[in-house]
Amino acid sequence: MPCIGKYRLLGMLGRGGTGSVYRAADPKDNRLKALKILRPSRIMLELAGLDELKRRFHAEAAAMVKLRNEHVADVFETGEHNGLPYMVQEYLCLNLGLVIGESARVELPTRVQSPLKALRIVSQILDALNALHEAGLVHRDIKPENIMMNRAGKVKIIDFGLCTSADHQDFVLPGMILGSPYYAAPEQTENPGSPDRRLDIYSTGVVLYRMVTGLLPEVQEHSVFRNPLLGRTWEIVLKKALAPKPEHRFQDADAMGGALLELKSDWEKRQEQVCALPDSFREDLPGNDNHDPGHPQEAEEKGPAELDNLSSLMQPLVYTRNKFQRTPQGIMDQATGLMWALDLSADGLTLEQARQYTDSLNPSKGSHALVGSWRMPCVQELITLVHPRQSLDDFCGPDLWRFKDRSWLWSSDVKSRSRSWIVDMDQGAVMSQDRMCRFHVLPVCTVPGVMPR
Question: In whole angstroms, how far apart are CA 408 and each of 26, 108, 154?
Answer without folding.
Answer: 25, 24, 13
